[in-house]
Queue: 3 jobs
Job 1
Amino acid sequence: MKNTSFRCLWIGQAFANLGDIFYVVGLISLLYNLTGSAFYLSLLPFITTIFRFISSLLAPLVIDRLPLKRIIEQSQWWKTILLVCLGIFIISFDHGFSVAVIFFIALISLLDGVAAPVSAALVPQLVPKEERMKANGFLNVITQTIFVAGWPLGSVLLISTNSSFIIWLTVLLYAVSTIYTGRIKVPEQTTDPVAPSNWDSIKSGWVAIRQIPTIRTLISIDFITTLASSVWVAAVIYIYVEQNLQLGEEWWGYINTSYFVGMIFSGLIVIRFAKLLEKYIGFFITFGLFLSSLLILFFGTTSIPALALLLACLYGLPEQIREVIYTKLFQDHATEKTLAKIYAVWGAVINLTFAGSVLLLGFITETYSVKTTFQFSSTLIFLAFLYATFKRNDLQGKQSDQSLSSKSSNLPR
């Protein structure tokens, strides 16, 4: 964890993540000033999700043909260049400019869909196996801290300046991120002299998931819990605050902050007790799911504001610990290139699942009640707990080097 390349990785990711937040804040303000239309604002998450989904599916085509470091470095440079172009175009405030903004959003989302899985796959090349749990916990602490601090800071900047200033500030943050990414040193990767066919590349991540039981089980669990986790979106929490707590709208912000504070604390717990978590991986996954099911059930039924804040914070603990454990197991059961393809597939599935679950839980909330929505989510997580218990042998995190090597050799690279 103390090597220079890992330090460059997390610093580069920190600047990139902060830039991503400012990018969204600036675009929301820019689109609203240009159009005054709620429809155009709704296009921002829609376009982002759809194009990231498409690029995640196609990412293996790039991963098979370029070294991982080169992919993430070039994608960050292109994001910077596209934002520079957007900043220049901002001087033309005509009505048709809104279409150009949507075009830039689509292109940047395509780059993000490729860069995200590659960035996650770089960690095993920089950190020894015995330190990966701690490294993943550290990266999650950095990410969640920036998320908690970045949105309020972006709002303050927007009030104090304007969308154009924020876009140019994002350009600076992306440029710094790219410089740090370029300083990462990774072992020289050998590429196959004959690249696989396009179809073989696209399906390789899916084939890897099917052939590696641990990863297949983790993704199945994550699919179920993602369906449930949409209860934390602003639309559901806003109604929860109004119906259950009967308080002002500012409380949904307090609850979200409490949730992410819990995630930050869980990252610190992972760093401190990495060896213990790694020793009992299966237990912490299954017990964490059971605990999450109880916490979300109690949260959905309480009408006490202080208890709601506490439960939201506590819910973030097992949620984040599971995510770090998942990442560690992924890294231990696949080679770097295969890992990047698996992350790409996982990202595509999760993005689509999350989008669908938001609509499903919104429908349940409107048709029945917000309490019913939380009860439904609690039931889903409990089903994930039962499935994890049934598949506990796949969650031990232990696999002989010979077995792993044998399976990896049969996977499409």
Job 2
Amino acid sequence: MAKGRTYELAFRIGGELSRSFVSATGKAGKRLDSLKRQGMLLGAGLAAAGAGMAYAIKQAADFETGQAKIATLLDAQGKQQLPQLGEAIDELSRSYGLGADTMQEAAFQAISASVPLAQVPKFLDAAAKAAVGGFTDVKTSVDGLTNILNAYHLTASEAESVSDSFFVANIRGKTTFDELASSLGAVAPLAEKLGVSYKDLSAVVATVSKGGVKTSEVTTQLKAALSNVLKPSEKAVKELARLNETMGGVPIAFGADAINAAGGFSNWLKILRDKTGGSADSMGQLFKSVEGLSTILTLTSNTGMADFNAGLDDMRKGGQTSSAFGDVATTAAFNWNKLTQTFHSFVRAIGSAALPVVNGLLGEMADKAFDVQGGLKPLVKAKIEETVKKIAEAARSLFKWLVNTAKILDGVA
């Protein structure tokens, strides 16, 4: 009887202990779940912060690489100005909503095209404004503007004026900023030599392209006509002599100095029209190139000459680039791009602060990894050889077992 009560008491105590244990472990489990959730949230936050910092460092590293590319074009003195150029690029990126990498590439392109380093920020400002207003990319804008600046030996301060002439041609003719940027460079050096200004070039394109002639064809035709002026044929020399002898007024001349002597291309065209009376036959004697003749006939017609001079008048007023940019700058898309680039600039600033430390750490890690790799090579090779031997031994044992098994089965059969 006493033994039965003892068992009963033991069972009761065991039950109470079991319930207490379950209750305690349940509460502890809830606490652990809570801690687990908090830990997961903390871990997610840390992971997000780490990813954000990694992104910031990557942005800063990419910008640093772009600056290093620009530095390859600079001498020792120029490299000292690189930080200031970097600040200007960052500001232009935010102002025009263009990627910093895009502006760095534009700076590289401009310096390669002989824009002096001190003038690069001002030039890029004009190029970016033209790109946004002309719905083109900065690379095209830089290429087109530097072609003209170099051909006419102009400074970066003239870049926006050149851009204005492009926009006038775009407004008055059947052409685009892209087409002008890619085509005018082909005729600009010869035009400059003869005294035909870059504004004259744009006015020619505006006038002739109205008739449906492509921009590239207009510049090809004009180049042919100017070549005939520079080196007149024998027929042209005879016709010039005849015109100057029989027709009164200011004499017409061909040659390298003829257009400058006439006071510019517009005046020279007027003298040419007055001397020939607009006669296609007389013009045909002066211009042996059929393509060149076609352009000259258009420019010396009453309508053509009026359009040409009206285009020049618009260019003298200026402001077309700023006007076009102003139209685009009011759009939501442009402001979104500005906001995006402002954010990227902020992120780069954070990454730039950490970049020196990270760069030093990465260099140290790379050096140590190289050293470790060199020490591990013999060990790895020995380990591979040992593993191959073991595999070979295992394969031989397996093959032997298969052969013996086959014999046993044959015997049973």
Job 3
Amino acid sequence: MFFCPCGIFVDLGQGHWLGKVYFCRLILFKPFFVVRQSMKLNRLTVTNYRNLLQASLDFSPNVNCFVGRNGMGKSNVLDAIYYLSFCRGFSSAQDVLNLHHESDYFILEGVYETEVGTVQPVCCSLKRGCRKRLKVDGKDVKRISEHVGRIPLVMIAPADSALITGGSEERRRFMDTVIMQYSAPYLDALIRYEQALKQRNALLKQEEEPDAAVLDVIEDMMAYTGEAIYRERKAFVEAFEPIFLELYRSLSGQVTEQVGLKYVSHGDRGDLRPQLRDWRAKERIVGYSLHGMHKDELELTLNGFAVKREASQGQQKTYFIAMKLAQYLFLKNRGEERVPLLLLDDIFDKLDAHRVERIIEYVSGNDFGQIFITDTRREHLDQVLASTRRDYRLFTVVDGEVTPVPMTAVAEHAADE
């Protein structure tokens, strides 16, 4: 084994399934001195994405609303916008499920504009059986991690109820989705930690006794990257909680509903290395790693009890909507010109009129940049449009066909109401 100033190099010998392993700390935590400006999506062109066969849409820089019955494709429009920021769908991480029926490819193209007028085209495409391809300004982007965070975005959808009802992986994903949008080194650390964890689990599962030297190297990488993950998550929760608490009080209008967040991690016990080594024998029995940042939890409480058990359906929905809107405000305040896009997908269902009114009043304010909203009920969207004093556009969605509603028709409908 050879130790160098920037990392560890291990030659595991000819024929070993891991071959040569090289972990470079300088590469892991290379600085990213990139100044990113807030983006607004001027135009979206969709080809063969889910049930959207073909669409070319021009958007308002402020509020954009989509109305239609369930299953018509409203959410797929938002999903396409989400994809251009993260290179993965919101509703499905499996790209093959995003292909339109029997189509062999899909193409998503977005034309973004910064506040200083710089136009930036982003194109993401996938051909069945091939790797996805991402282009920014006409140039191929080889590593998706270099793109994530370029166009900050927050999406709120009914599936976010999993933040409350789902397992701890849902809440880890929530933290990761926020942090990776402002910290490229964090995303890099997360990727390397997951790779090391996968390798360690493979060794724990094999029938023969694993090579202790190989486990040492893998666990060193898990501990090293895990420390960075723990440090960032802990700092995030400390800074995020006050924003969330204030926002929940504003949306619920109930001073008696006391909410709270608590980050729980094996990192609280100190260095991860001894924890991993002490548990090797037991983890060999179960065949996977029981300790590490992949077991972190973000505890959500209401009046001192788990929100999953304590809250009503309306309170649970207010809870996760407040978490996601707080995520938006957190990202917005992370630095100059980092106003994210906000996507609201059918969020008013199962909320009482009082909470709907408060959410509409809140998102119609000046704290938010470009917003995309879907709903099955036109009256909800009319409330949003009536509350905002900014430019807006309305679209109808029927069987994957997205049609802009002329402003004269919107005005006439409002007058009839």
